[in-house]
Amino acid sequence: MRDDSVNPHLTILYRGPLSSCDYDCPYCPFAKRRDSPERLRRDRAALERFTAWTAECGHPVSVLFTPWGEGLVRSWYRGTMVELSRLPHVRRVAIQTNLSGRTGWLAEADLDTLALWVTYHPGQVTHERFLARCRELHALGVRFSVGVVGLPEHLQAARRLRADLPPEVYLWVNAAEGHLYTDEEAAPWAALDPLFHHSRTPHRSAGLPCRTGESVVSVDGDGTVRRCHFVPEVLGNLYDGSFRQALRPRGCPLAVCDCHIGYVHLEPTGLYDVFAGGVLERIPHVSLSGW
Ligand code: SF4
Ligand code: SF4
């Protein structure tokens, strides 16, 4: 029987040196950026080191890869996803992806553990091509959510996608960065994503309890551990184990938290209940009316 008090479960948000993408989204600093061969080598070596640590860590773990760019076009991310999904102490391994790559490799993975956080970027891929990829995932039995950035020019594409996706696939909407939505502007997005209100306005988080720094950590390619991707203070290193003595409950030191990969862990949001079983891949645990 599992005893999490002796071997506590740790959630890790991993982001290595990779910072390149095959897409060219106008709202992204990584659009069409290329990594040098040296940077790609470093990214691969860092990911392999992280994968080896995770395989041997000796306690339950869940991992979300949040690359700056697209990871699944690189063989080492696909290999890591497959390898970690098959380990009994890995409860979830997920990655944020634009789904531009092929899906056949997923057949090798344990699909009870692997999941995908998929973002649709209208303007970079046709509706038909993106929908076909989503249908491939669905046919394979892959757990995935699909989302869009809530820019006005995406609305028609998002509506069309919602209409054509299998009804049980959750479509989320991220508020566009720096965009304040009037009630009138928010309404069509909330009609697509019943949880849009969580993204619409940044969460006031100062001093509030957040699971990061206790049961959730952010790790970079050198193994530097921080509580989350947004707070720069270093807690220690993954590979020398020094981070462990720093893990404890702590309030958020920032004024606001406006990214789902952060505020989902902010306790007063109650989002662990909403996304129970699908926190990392952003899949609500019950079907919400309206999608
Ligand atoms: S797919 Fe993602 S990482 Fe790539 S350019 Fe678009 S927003 Fe940036
Ligand atoms: S609320 Fe957000 S910014 Fe604050 S500690 Fe948690 S994840 Fe980090």
UniProtKB/TrEMBL annotation:
Superkingdom per UniProt: Bacteria
Lineage summary: Bacteria, Bacillati, Actinomycetota, Actinomycetes, Streptosporangiales
Database matches in Gene3D superfamilies: Aldolase class I
Family matches, as InterPro entries: Aldolase_TIM, Radical_SAM_STM4011-like, rSAM_sf
Naturally occurring in which organism (per UniProt): Streptosporangium saharense
SUPFAM superfamilies in UniProt: Radical SAM enzymes
Full protein name: MoaA/NifB/PqqE/SkfB family radical SAM enzyme
NCBIfam families: rSAM_STM4011
